[in-house]
Amino acid sequence: MSAIFITATGTDIGKTFVAAGLLRHWRTAGRSVEALKPVATGYDPTNAEASDPGVLLAASGRSVTPTEIERIAPWRFAAPLSPDMAARREKRTIDFDALVEFTRSAIASAKGTLLIEGIGGVMVPLDAEHTVLSWMAVQRASVILVAGSYLGSLSHTLTALDALRRRHLVIKALVVNETPGSTVPIADTVASLKYWAGSTRIVALPRSPNAADPKLTKLAALF
After folding, report:
1. Which H or E run includes 2?
2. Which of 61, 108, 134, 214 is 20 to 30 Å from the Cα of 100, by its Cα?
C-alpha cells in the first residue's frame, strides 16, 4: 500500500483535477486505488456530484451518495472559505487529532494506493494551531504539489516547496497545471522552476483536450 497526499500552492489550482485523472488512469490499468477528501468547504449537498468529493467518487467508479460522501469527506462545510473560517461560520471546529486518526486509519486499511486530497494550499489553516502542512507532516505520505502557471506562481510554488522541504516531506512530483487565460506561457513557468526543483520531477499539464492523458501517464509512473 502507498499513500499519496495531493496538495497545492493555493485554492482552485487543480488538486481534484489531478487526483481524478490519476484515479481514472490507475483504474483503467487495473490498479487498486482509493481516494479521500477529508476536509471540504463550499460544499452544497444539493449538488454533490459537482463537489470535490463527488468528482473523486465518480472517478473511483463509486456512486455519489450521502453515505459515500460521508465516508470520504467527513468534515464538510458550506462556506467557500478556508477550513477554520468555514467551521467558525457553523460554530464548529475541526478536531485535528480526529482528522489525523481518520487518515491514519484509512492508510492502514487501504488495499492499494490511497490518494488523500488536501484543501487549499500548503499553509491553509485548519484551526488556530494547525495547517494543512501540520497534517501532512504527521502523515508522512509522499506528496504531489500542484502549482499553476499564472503570473506570481513562481513565488507561491517556491514558498510551498521550501515549506515542504523544511518538514522533510518527500515531494514525488511538482505538477504545473496550466492556468486558463494566463499571460505566462506554461513552458516558461516550467523552465524557471527547473532551476529550483532540484531532484523533484516536474510534470506539465497543458490545457488541451488530448495533452493531459499522456502527461498523467508520466506522473502515474512515478508511483
Report:
1. strand 2-8
2. 61
CATH no. for residue 14?
3.40.50.300
Give the count of domains, the chain: 1
Which cell numbers in the block locate residue 84? 477554520
Instruction: For residues 198 and 177, give the distance between their C-alpha atoms in angstroms, rounded to a whole number.
Output: 19
Active site residues: 37
pLDDT at 217: 79
Choose among 169, 73, 165: nearest CA to 118. 73
Please, are residues 116 and 147 in contact by the beta-carbon 8 Å criterion? Answer: no
Residue 65 one-letter amino acid: T
Q: Which residues lie below 8 Å from residue 129, measured CB to CB, with a gap of 6+?
A: 96
Q: How confident is residue 153, by pLDDT bands cut at 50, 70 and 90?
A: very high
Q: What is the pLDDT of residues 175-189, one digit of tens each?
A: 999 999 999 999 999
Average of per-residue pLDDT values in the chain? 94
Range of the domain at 99: 2-220
